[in-house]
Structure formats: structure tokens, C-alpha cells
Design goal:
Elements lengths: L17 H14 L5 H6 L3 H16 L5 H14 L3 H14 L2 H8 L7 H11 L18 H21 L13 H10 L1 H5 L26 H13 L7 H13 L19 H11 L6 H7 L6 H22 L11
Helix pairs in contact: 1-3, 3-8, 3-11, 4-5, 4-7, 4-8, 5-6, 5-9, 8-15, 11-15, 12-13, 12-15, 13-14, 13-15
Length: 334
């Protein structure tokens, strides 16, 4: 059977021990899917697994805001980033919320019938644009941690999936069939509709900080801070010049996808680490075997590769986060 992973060979969740096993137990319980591929890919670098899960859990699953609306936001971010795996996953999860009509409208490329969902989808699609923060988001201030946390979580997860996971969600692309995605969603409905206690993932983190102001003291803040700190560890795989190059490129990034030709990324021969980090940030699906091989050395394990990819991916997330609206600009409830 072909592996669902690209460039790494992570251990299966059932082989996990210690903190990694605890994370997978909570994922199975609160997400309803045992060992989802994005988190299995991250488990090659255990320091990244818990904070990545915590950010998704505390925003999408347990954070303030309607789960259906946040699934629409996750769908919109994933669509904008071209992450087919995640688009298909959130279509099934929308079925799990019980809004089957909405799930199928999005699956067919149509907009939501509900005006609020349509505005959330439009906002989510534009979150990677530096100008997005100038507009009021389509949810009230108290829901900012849930919606903004969800958008940032999936800007990160999309990049991890595109870099390290196959685009095929189910064998034979079965999720493209309406009966299959509907049935898959229904199988998750009990878990998706069950209220989740905020903060349950925080004991899995190592001394998280308070997080950004927009998180408003919710568990989303420590989760974001923990993932930022864990992602920063990957910078140690680059020298000072390569780190400076990555920072400079992200400051200049206008939110668009870089062209394929001419190749705008550093060359494999001279700066393979910077190339991998910037590909992970701006065009993760373009990471190919030649890019990985040019950087790999005997000391560069899967653990190292996942850390480097995560460093680049989160550099883009931090750039997106810096441009998005603060809670005071969110719309008041009508």
C-alpha cells in the first residue's frame, strides 16, 4: 500500500509512547479521527505535535464561535492555499455538523446560502492578503479567538499537509463521491457536535506563554504561543545568513503564490536549507525529492526535516497573523 506521507516515514500512532501517545489519545477522543495524517507527519518531531494539536483544538473545536462557521473558515483558508486534502476533510466535517446542504454547495464550488457563512468564507479566503486586516471580520469580538485561531491553525496545517502528506484523503479519491463524504461526515457527527471543554490540551504543553492580545485570555493564546516557540526551534538548522534571507522574504511577501518560472527560490546547491524553509512558507506543495536530497546530510533525520519545514510554515503564519484584525475591529453582534 502506498504511504500517505512525502519525504518522511513517521511511526504509526499505535507505536507512540509518552506525551505523543497522550496527544493521539486526545485527538481520537476530541477530533474523532484516530491518527489524522497531518499530526502523524508532525509526530516525527514530538515537540511540535502537542502545540499544533492544541492550536487546532482550542480554536476550531473548543474555541468561541459556531463550529459550522469555523469549519467554513477552515474550508476557505484551505481553498485559498490550494490544500485539496484539507478542503475535502472540511467538506466531510461540515457534513458532520449536520449542515449537509452547505457542505454540498461548497463541494460544488457554490457559495453558502446563508449570508453570515458567505461573509466568513470570503474573509477566510482573503486572510493571506496583507490588506485583509484593514476590514472588520464577520463575527463579533468575543468570537475572534475561535475564528482567527482557526484561520491561523489551518494556514499552518495546510502547509504541513502540502509539504509532507499526500493529497489523497481517502483511497481512490473516494471522498469526491457525495455518498462517501456524507457517510464519512455522519460517522463523525457525534464527536463534532459534542461540546468540548476549553483548555483541555494545555496540560500537554511545556510552559506555554500567554499568547497574542487577540486571543483575549482564552486557551487559544497559550496554544499559539507554544506553537510559535516550538516552530522557532527549526531556525537552528539554518545559519544566520539563511535565517535573515527567510525573514526578509517573508517581510516582502504580498500573500500571492510565487511563480513557477522563473524559480524565485534560493538554489539547491548553494542554499538548500533556505530553499526548503521558503518553499514550506510560500509554496509547500513544490517541495520535491531533489530539494530534500540537496539538504539532507547523515545527521538530518526526519525529525530535522519536520522542524525545518515547520519553521518555514510558521514564518508564513506569523506574517499572516501580523496583518489580521485585532478584536476591537470585529463587528458588533446584531
Amino acid at each position: 500500500m502506498p504511504t500517505p506521507f512525502r519525504h518522511t516515514a513517521p511511526l504509526p500512532p499505535e507505536a507512540a509512547t509518552g506525551r505523543v501517545a497522550e496527544v493521539f489519545e486526545q485527538i481520537a477522543r476530541d477530533f474523532g479521527i484516530p491518527g489524522p495524517a497531518p499530526f502523524v507527519a508532525l509526530s516525527s518531531a514530538p515537540a511540535l505535535l502537542a502545540p499544533a494539536w492544541a492550536l487546532m483544538r482550542e480554536s476550531l473545536i473548543a474555541g468561541p464561535g459556531d463550529r459550522t462557521g469555523k469549519e467554513v473558515a477552515a474550508f476557505g483558508v484551505s481553498e485559498a492555499n490550494g490544500c485539496r486534502f484539507c478542503v475535502d476533510a472540511h467538506t466531510m466535517l461540515l457534513h458532520a455538523t449536520g449542515d449537509h446542504a452547505l457542505a454540498e454547495r461548497l463541494a460544488r464550488g457554490r457559495g453558502p446560502a446563508d449570508e453570515r457563512h458567505a461573509r466568513v468564507l470570503d474573509w477566510a479566503r482573503r486572510t493571506g492578503n496583507p490588506d485583509a486586516g484593514r476590514e472588520s471580520p464577520p463575527f463579533p469580538p468575543e468570537e475572534v479567538p475561535g475564528y482567527l485561531g482557526t484561520a491561523l491553525a489551518f494556514h499552518f496545517i495546510n502547509r504541513i499537509v502540502s509539504a509532507l502528506v499526500s493529497e489523497r484523503l481517502l483511497p481512490g479519491e473516494a471522498q469526491r463521491l457525495r455518498p462517501v463524504r456524507s457517510l464519512a461526515g455522519r460517522s463523525l457527527s457525534r464527536t463534532v457536535r459534542r461540546p468540548a471543554v476549553p483548555g483541555a490540551s494545555l496540560p500537554l504543553l511545556d510552559t506555554p506563554g500567554p499568547g497574542p492580545a487577540w486571543a483575549a485570555g482564552t486557551p487559544v493564546g497559550p496554544a499559539y504561543a507554544a506553537l510559535r516557540a516550538a516552530a522557532a526551534l527549526g531556525a537552528g538548522l539554518l545559519d544566520a545568513d539563511d535565517q535573515a534571507l527567510v525573514r526578509s522574504a517573508l517581510r516582502k511577501w504580498d500573500g500571492s503564490r510565487p511563480p513557477v518560472d522563473p524559480d524565485p527560490f534560493p538554489g539547491r546547491e548553494r542554499r538548500p536549507g533556505a530553499r526548503l524553509a521558503l518553499l514550506a512558507a510560500l509554496a509547500p506543495s513544490r517541495i520535491g525529492p531533489a530539494d530534500v536530497a540537496a539538504w539532507r546530510r547523515p545527521e538530518h533525520t526526519d525529525h530535522c526535516l519536520v522542524h525545518l519545514v515547520t519553521y518555514g510554515a510558521f514564518a508564513a503564519v506569523d506574517r499572516v497573523e501580523s496583518t489580521l484584525s485585532a478584536p476591537t475591529t470585529a463587528e458588533e453582534p446584531s
